Amino acid sequence: MRISVNPLRGQQFPAVLLLVAAGLGLLLANLPTHDPIAAALDVHLAVPGASLDLSLAHWVSDGLLAVFFFVVAIELRHELTHGELDSPRKALQPAIAATGGVLVPIAIYLLIAGDGATASGWPIPTATDIAFALGVLAMFGRGLPSTVRVFLLALAILDDIIGIVFIAVLFAHDVQWVLLAAAVVAVAVFWVLSRWLGATGHTGIAVLMVLVGVLCWGLVAASGIHATIAGVMLGLVMAPTPAGRSRHALEPTVNGAILPLFAFVAAFVVIPAVSPTQLSPAFWAIVVALPIGKLVGIGLFGWLAMRIRPRGTAPALVLPDILAAGALGGIGFTVSLLLANLAFASDDGIRDQAILGVLVGSLLSLLFSGVVVSARARHYRRIAAASS
């Protein structure tokens, strides 16, 4: 009997879908289709009886993307409790590499665009798109040792944590503490219900959890904290068994609809009709910081981490494999696009050029990492063939 596998649960197809959606958004933004699509994305939809009145584009980035962060948080919790980061010894090496993968891109960005209105964009090149990076690894890395994937996975998860902290801390505005406290209470109720659901499996509890989750999202959005943080909080506190089932159920929707839709909306920017010398420093800073900053930062700090690793930890990666992980780390995409929107929310011109920088920088990282990963995979396949 042939078993069919949903491609939306894999790594390669969702990565391709993301790239196509972003390319389509960029293309349609620069054709006569721009005005009607832009008008549609600017249509406001309000929640009756609430203070939430968001454009369609913001419902995608603030609402649907919260579901993505919910799934990410479930995976983060699993890795921190039962996975690749469940002990300080396991986390030490990728944590040091991740630190380099954050500090070096920030330094490069500030060196190029650290003056004036563009300085606030320094968090943008710090992110790694875990789904995209693992998709490229799956496409080109046949034959690589599993230690490379484990290292990349841990590295990208730590990057996600850093990105979540940036979103929660740096882009809060006029925080309404009473509403935020009410959201925390909703999270506590969600936590209790999730354990009740895990013990009983009652469908009615699951429905109630959805309602509490939506209420929590609304409270966080109204409090001045970015609404995606609600998804993070709910995913982190959910009981393991229902969390695993929720992640499995939501994965095809997140990969097949939510992320491509966000990529389309985020990439829907007009390419400025100017010479390269007239582009914003933010554009150039991101284009350099993503592929080069991540490669240098992860490569250098990852090599140092392997040199000082404690006895009994996983086998050391050789420098070329660390550089392959560093090249993959430059694929910022999803979280970098969100950070670009948040960092320059008050300046549409710089924001659009920063988004273009994310797309170009991530594409350069994708192409370079494909070459590096393919070369390393061929190297290991040759070794395997010679030893067989």
TrEMBL record:
Its main location: membrane. It catalyses: Na(+)(in) + 2 H(+)(out) = Na(+)(out) + 2 H(+)(in). InterPro entries: Na/H_antiporter_dom_sf (IPR023171), NhaA (IPR004670). It comes from the Bacteria. Pfam families: Na_H_antiport_1. It is a multi-pass membrane protein. The chain crosses the membrane at residues 95-114, 120-138, 150-171, 177-194, 201-220, 256-275, 281-305, 317-342, 354-373. Keywords: Antiport, Cell membrane, Ion transport, Membrane, Sodium, Sodium transport, Transmembrane, Transmembrane helix, Transport. It is found in: Cell inner membrane; Cell membrane. Na(+)/H(+) antiporter that extrudes sodium in exchange for external protons. Belongs to the NhaA Na(+)/H(+) (TC 2.A.33) antiporter family. This is Na(+)/H(+) antiporter NhaA. It comes from Microbacterium galbinum. The gene is nhaA.
